[in-house]
Amino acid sequence: MLIDPKHLHILSAIVDAGGMSQGARNLGKSQPSLSRIVADLEARLGESLFEKGRRPLQPTELCTRLASEGRVIARATQQAQDIASQFISGHAGSVRVAGTPIFMDGVISTIIAGFQDEFPELRVDQSYGYAEELIEALRAGTVDTCVCPMEPGDVPDDIGFQRILKGRNVIACGSAHPLARKKSLRLEEISEFPWITQPAGSPLYQDLRDVLDSIGISDFKVSYSGGTLSSIINVLAGSKALTVLPFSVVYMQPKNTIVALPIRIEHPKRELGMLWNDMESQSPAKRRFIRYMTKRFAGISQAVAERQRQEIWRE
Amino acid sequence: MLIDPKHLHILSAIVDAGGMSQGARNLGKSQPSLSRIVADLEARLGESLFEKGRRPLQPTELCTRLASEGRVIARATQQAQDIASQFISGHAGSVRVAGTPIFMDGVISTIIAGFQDEFPELRVDQSYGYAEELIEALRAGTVDTCVCPMEPGDVPDDIGFQRILKGRNVIACGSAHPLARKKSLRLEEISEFPWITQPAGSPLYQDLRDVLDSIGISDFKVSYSGGTLSSIINVLAGSKALTVLPFSVVYMQPKNTIVALPIRIEHPKRELGMLWNDMESQSPAKRRFIRYMTKRFAGISQAVAERQRQEIWRE
DNA sequence: AATTAACATAGCATTATGCTATATTATTTG
DNA sequence: CAAATAATATAGCATAATGCTATGTTAATT
Hints:
The structure is a homodimer of 315-residue chains.
Chain A: H1 5-17, H2 20-27, H3 31-45, H4 61-88, E1 93-99, H5 101-118, E2 122-128, H6 131-140, E3 145-150, E4 160-165, E5 169-174, H7 187-190, E6 195-197, H8 203-215, E7 222-225, H9 229-238, E8 242-246, H10 247-252, E9 258-260, E10 271-276, H11 284-313
Parallel strand pairs in A: 1-2, 1-3, 6-7
Antiparallel strand pairs in A: 3-10, 4-10, 5-8, 5-9
Helix pairs in contact in A: 1-2, 1-3, 1-4, 2-3
The structure holds a DNA duplex (30 and 30 nucleotides).
């Protein structure tokens, strides 16, 4: 003797409408449908649900109590309906984003803020990692999308990649740094200052080495390492140390904290991009996030390049 | 795009069981059933509910949220199930009992106490009235059963009647009354005391008149009227007034409050009985109540008659 | 008594659901 | 890495549930 929750819902609709005909209209069904469902229920329960022979339909006590459970069911079903449509339209759900620390802290988090402003019901779970582990995480399904500097050729075939920003590094220092005011610099001038480095495995560490190699500095002094971006910026701002950072990160910082030195250094071969595993199986929220990011970066990319041209290349 | 609450319930069962096979076992269904229902739901939502190609079945975010609504539905359905079976077995529900005030207060309420002790989930709604209005209320369906002194011949054909107690009246007084200690009384002795009466329309008022008429007292002094039983008893106990009461009422009172005088007075033609409208359409709880009352009174009726024989008739 | 509005029933078409048998597939084991 | 295992997916078929329209009944109203 099992009761179908749908029947309880229908019962509540009849009781609330005050009759079968109106109840049927409210539910978008025909009156005979409800009539039969009620009759079946009565037969299966062995109890009548409406006083018979009364025309403003009068629910029995049992009916009233079952109808109140029906209301709970109706509410939960509606809720599920809403959740589903919110979810399908990409207005509800969550995205798990991972990426390299400096970019996540320095650029992506600000863009995420804009995303959350536009889609307040969407939850973003952020985590950190470098290329190999990120791809690993994508494959394991513990992360939905990653932001990571990659050489496009290094992206495995099974992983989607969308470039969002060109790789442009600069040498950065605190805005009070003695070199900060100079219009032009000779390479020798920077050699006396100590350096802030990223962890050895990180792309930026490699970039730093490459830059100094190309300038001819093979032996450099490291004054600070291991901090996340906010620590690095504090150290830069309060000391004479230098570091290599993506220009986009410098660009996104508030004025008067750090600046980029007007020295052209070589572009890293990596480009910042978004990675994903299987776009088709992504939920709408996740697709929406990726769409949003690539779209926002289309604009930002321009602005960053323009500013860099003005500030570093002085054209 | 309507979601069936049953499907949400099934979804929650699958998620909670950690897989379809176990979920199917828990629900008492076959695994292919669930598999298809999930596939249909996915097709209709256009979103997958379980990560595909993962074997410990892993619900997607959407699935998790829908399942949590499913749990609400499962709980409400179970609740409805419980309500129904409690109700059908007569262990839940309510009974609306009406009756004449003195009997309700003096006898029935005590029996109701026993009923509620045995069926604590059953609610009793009590109200008061006299024969015509009671029958009216039964027909209107505002009351389920009535307790009322009636002449069996006066019961309308459409109303069921079950005698529960013979009509036996006595003259009652406070236990400290000067007449209370006498073994036998002459009729003249009672004529000097004032009387407590019921409202003019009540059966007991008629009984009082009949009694005094038969004794030859046509002109009697009324000292108090209009009170319900507890007032009447207080007035009896604290004054020298007399009144006519059913012996059953006197019998049910605690010792040393009121007593019945050893004077044989004529039996009223009315007998206390239970009335109902249509036994078939009564809910189990109401049937159970009527059953309980008639059964309890089968015993009480004996005890009352026996005691009355001893106390009044002195046989 | 006639009218009206609602509920009940009948009949039929369609969909949903149930099952068993069997194919696939992810994971574990040897 | 192949075999074994255990779970899910699919196919096919029978049955139950549900939908509708048309129509019969009935309680309330005029």
